[in-house]
Amino acid sequence: GQQLNQSPQSMFIQEGEDVSMNCTSSSIFNTWLWYKQDPGEGPVLLIALYKAGELTSNGRLTAQFGITRKDSFLNISASIPSDVGIYFCAGFRTGANSKLTFGKGITLSVRP
Amino acid sequence: EAQVTQNPRYLITVTGKKLTVTCSQNMNHEYMSWYRQDPGLGLRQIYYSMNVEVTDKGDVPEGYKVSRKEKRNFPLILESPSPNQTSLYFCASSLSWPGTRQNEQFFGPGTRLTVL
To answer: B40 vs A104: CB contact, 8 Å cut-off?
Structure first.
């Protein structure tokens, strides 16, 4: 099936630093989504991207839909301790058997 | 409050003992889905339902059953659980297909299942 690649599996940063994570695929997607999962909870949608090249911000978070439609990145600026969690990308492609495909997630740790 | 609820939140059981994890949403959503989350594997879809009485397999349906008799409920059934079904399970719902505009997918709090 379709696969989304997120790496590395874990990232460790210092509070106040910016961090960027990307998500790549061999397939084209019509939608890219970024979710965050806090410890002990379900994922929550951070940003949704629906058009190639689209750049969208949500507070300190910025995400972009790659121009090739095969990738997306998420940037967190001026990280704070509550940014800790697992960040998932997800891609959606319309057509027969449309479904959401998730990446494996990146666990972010923020050192105070 | 708009939410997706799951019960139980934690369950320890033994191999072969049938169990059901319930999922309910109060947002009148058409689309509901079950995922399992395993370390290093991320979220994998088990089954989904686009409407009442309409269900379809996801990526990892083996060993699971679902039903959608009412719009708000989407229980996950393990007829004969095995240790490889030990995992963290999430139910989710959205108005329509979750990758389309204005169709944010809401996740439940998760059910941690251990099969001994």
So the answer is: yes
